[in-house]
Amino acid sequence: MKRIYVEEKWCLGCHLCEYNCAFAQSGLSDMVKALKDVPIHPNIQIEEGRGVCYAVSCRHCEEPLCVKSCISGALSSADGVIRVDRDKCVGCYTCVLVCPYGCILPTQEGPVQKCELCLETSAGSPACVRGCPNRAIVYEER
Per the structure, how many domains does the chain have? Predict the structure, then answer.
């Protein structure tokens, strides 16, 4: 199963992965129209501190605590990808609390959001990977 991996030594902290993620989620074909003057809510976050930058996104765990803890059955795992059914999510945020990586994020609308590998919008790889200028984020099997 392919997964997203981050090489923190190559991360510049440019946040382009966040913008590409938000653009991919927008469903629009023009990045400027999709993101200009709009607060973005990407499924990947850049963490910075002590001279290190690191992109944090869902690890799509083999034994996902988030799926096991979801009281409404909104989270599911199929073919190694953990997905959110936004219609089932009741916004209890139990999954946010149990995720050991902090990769599931609450939203203002109620349902949670997380990386789903851009499988619906992907051109072979997630948007964050395609948008990383330094190849600090890769999508591969290891």
Answer: 2
Express each pLDDT in 66-84 by its tens digit. 999 999 999 999 988 999 9
Q: Which residues are within 8 A (CB) of 86 and not within 5 positions of it... i.e. 6 or more apart?
A: 74, 111
Give yes or no: residues 102 and 126 share one domain.
no
**H/E element holding 22?**
helix 16-26
Q: In this structure, are 2 and 29 located in the same domain?
A: yes
Report the C-alpha gap between 11 and 132 in whole angstroms.
Answer: 9
**Strand ranges (DSSP E) for 52-129?**
52-56, 75-78, 81-84
For position 41, which CATH number holds? Answer: 3.30.70
pTM: 0.88
